[in-house]
Amino acid sequence: MFFALTDEQQAFASTVTEFLAERFDLEAVRGVVEDTDGDGHPLTLWKGLADQGALAVLVPEEHDGLGLGLLDAQVVARALGAGVAPGPWLATVLAAEAVRIAGSAEQQSRWLPALAAGETVGTVALRGEGGAWDGSGITVDVNDGRLNGSASPVDYPAVAGLIVVAATDASGTPGLYLVEADASGLTVRDQHTYDGTARVGAIEFADTPAEALPGGDAAAVRALLARGAVLNAADLVGVAREALTRTVAYDRDRNQFGVPVGSFQALKHALADLHVAVTMAEHAVLFAAHALDTDDPGAAIAVAVAGSKASDAAWNATGAMIQFFGGIGFTWEHEAHFFYKRARRRAPLFGSAAEHREALATLTM
Amino acid sequence: MDLTYTAEEEQFRQELRTWLAENIPTEWTVPGYWATLSDEESFEKRREWEARKTAAGFSGIQWPVEYGGRGGTPAMKAIYDEETVRAHAPQTVNVLGLTFLAPTIMAIGTEEQKAEIIGPMLRNEVIWCQGFSEPGAGSDLAAVATRGVLDGDEYVVNGQKIWTTNAMHGDKIFTIVRTEAGSEKHKGLSMLLIDMDQPGVEARPLKQMSGASEFGEVFFTDARVPAKDCLGEIGQGWRTAMLLLSFERGASGVGQYTEFRRQYDEIVAEAKRFGRAEDPVARQELARCLVELECLRYHAMHILTQVEQGRDLGSESSMTKLQWSEAFQDLWEAFEHVLGPEATLSAPRPDVDLSPFHAQDHWSRSVTIWGGSSQVQRNIVAERVLGLPR
Ligand SMILES: Cc1cc2nc3c(=O)[nH]c(=O)nc-3n(C[C@H](O)[C@H](O)[C@H](O)COP(=O)(O)OP(=O)(O)OC[C@H]3O[C@@H](n4cnc5c(N)ncnc54)[C@H](O)[C@@H]3O)c2cc1C
């Protein structure tokens, strides 16, 4: 029994965390948040991540990747969440996963090395406005290799060179399709999320030529959504842990009534409960990543547990961060809103906490 | 990560499974069987079962062979917990002695104590009680007022303990007693091992909210205990108590998960039976419980890893206590919510008996009190894990 990260995985996490601390700290994040017209894709950060192998984690070695698993990938996601780092990391990793899982040999050798090296930014368009995250929420149709419809919200559509689109054919069967950024009939509309650490948009497809991923069946769509759910949960866990750590550090030193506010039991108990919840969410993400890596028959349950627990933990920890910093926590100058907004934006992605719980009910009731 | 067990550990699982299959009567596997027995019947059956299990070599899994144990690994203990729950084996009646006292004796007991106490405890010949709490010393354990005065080579003990589990069945009790007159708080306490079968000791049952009387009060009136029956040094009882309490950890979460998960499935089955399984709110509530139970399972694997690597869990065990006790209690809250008015009826339909569910439901109210209340655990997590000021 070894339920923990290996030394290598921990070292990997540290390199990303240290890189962010040295080269892309909260001041740099603020720069992106306040540059509302910018593309939210700072190249220093992107190149740095590519150099660390953070984009190549899941790409097989024969395509210039590291050939590792989701357990390794989630350490990157967690570090990026903790650093509230902007950029299309998750979008690119998932696009590569789609090609790896469902692409032809030719598609793989064309796209995987470029995605792993950060030369091409990828993204995924897996659901339409108001749709569910189980493959039933797709609002793009495919006919004769042409896509029509829309997808939203999509991460970083404006900088993506490759878009993986989920679309249903005439018989209603979902599949996965590749669309290049310069394809005809493609309109990208910026949706201006309130989370300044990301750029998201809607994509309209009007007779857009697309190339099918031959293995992109309903199961592949579900596999991709499950991977997205776990990596998204890892990001949320990173956000939650960092929000909590910063709050605890502040309340240890902040004095009111002549004592540190952290000595008041009302705060202590709330923070203790959050610590337990965040720790459980960390365990849940580890287990879910491992379950997917090993094709565990209980993987669907594990993913739903991780998705809902991480959502709730991040939601609660970032709300508490603002509350337990007091007035300063509500200011623009303070960093609490970076964490809060990122948690709120990400919590519903790849399935909200409630959607994951409904999935659990279906699996066990 | 590697969530498998070694071949040797799996071999142990097989042996244990086979033995359990041959030795657990079918009637025990009927849900709620134990709740149908009187306290007395249930205790005697469990006592006898325990002795049989020990004779077969399935007790003291993690204990050294020299103490009658099996010399197994923490993982084997986890497997043991899981398999016994899965097979519907009853909980041991000597849980307080086996969990707390035995490891403490192995660590700091005299040779005489090791020889005299551990074997009979393992075979259930001597049932041990834990006499820590007093009417005025619950969460504030150091406030004990029970006194012991040296008279020759014996201590004479006077005072009262309360909430003592198995008070009516206990043969011996490990107690915290103030042996230094006028001392305060943590100072001047000793851990005395007192014979309950003597004129100066009187146990009275306390009826619990469930109607059962698993705990009681113990009164000491000039009870006598030989000075050699002090565990650890005289006057160092607090240190002994802290060491003793530190043994409530390890791999038990694996077994707890197995048990609670079965209860979740039983509650789901009732929800279906009463037409509540399609209600979206009920589904959310049950799934929320399942999330916490699954987290308990993952957490148990994490804890097992820590234990196997020889790490001292320290205050992390307070997190474990919070997670399992709150998750268990929430599950039974959900039972009440989801079933609605039927939940309180023992026989809502002629063919349905919900009384075992009620026993669990009522028991769930206690788990956030004993073993350090949830509030006390939160203090520990906040102060010792998060480093918040006292
Ligand atoms: C089923 C059961 C079995 C038990 N078995 C045994 C046994 O075998 N041996 C034994 O010695 N004891 C036993 N106990 C006793 C148990 O350990 C105590 O009940 C427990 O420690 C709480 O103490 P108390 O009952 O005096 O409550 P109190 O300490 O008076 O607590 C009352 C309330 O105040 C809260 N509180 C107390 N201190 C604080 C604080 N610092 N901050 C915030 N809130 C606080 C508590 O959480 C609780 O909600 C058992 C109890 C139960 C319910």
Automatic annotation (TrEMBL), chain A:
Keyword Flavoprotein attributed: yes
Molecular-function annotations in GO: flavin adenine dinucleotide binding; medium-chain fatty acyl-CoA dehydrogenase activity
EC assignment: 1.3.8.7
Record keyword RNA-binding present: no
Acyl-CoA dehydrogenase/oxidase C-terminal domain ranges (all copies): 221-361
Cited InterPro entries: Acyl-CoA_Oxase/DH_mid-dom_sf, AcylCo_DH-like_C, AcylCo_DH/oxidase_C, AcylCoA_DH/ox_N, AcylCoA_DH/ox_N_sf, AcylCoA_DH/oxidase_NM_dom_sf
Top-rank taxon: Bacteria
Keywords: FAD, Flavoprotein, Oxidoreductase
Coiled coil residues, start to end: none
Necessary cofactors: FAD
Domain called Acyl-CoA dehydrogenase/oxidase N-terminal: residue spans: 6-119
Main EC class the enzyme belongs to: oxidoreductase
Family: Belongs to the acyl-CoA dehydrogenase family.
PANTHER family reported in the protein's UniProt record: ACYL-COA DEHYDROGENASE, ACYL-COA DEHYDROGENASE FADE28
Protein name per the record: Acyl-CoA dehydrogenase
Automatic annotation (TrEMBL), chain B:
Keywords: FAD, Flavoprotein, Oxidoreductase
Domain Acyl-CoA dehydrogenase/oxidase N-terminal residues, every copy: 6-125
Domain (Acyl-CoA dehydrogenase/oxidase C-terminal): residue spans on this chain: 235-386
Annotated Acyl-CoA oxidase/dehydrogenase middle domain residues: 129-222
GO cellular component terms attached to this protein's record: plasma membrane
One GO MF term attached to the UniProt entry: flavin adenine dinucleotide binding
Name of a matching Pfam family: Acyl-CoA_dh_M
Listed cofactors: FAD
Family: Belongs to the acyl-CoA dehydrogenase family.
PANTHER family: ACYL-COA DEHYDROGENASE, ACYL-COA DEHYDROGENASE FADE29
Name by which UniProt lists this protein: Alkylation response protein AidB-like acyl-CoA dehydrogenase
Organism taxonomic ancestry: Bacteria, Bacillati, Actinomycetota, Actinomycetes, Pseudonocardiales
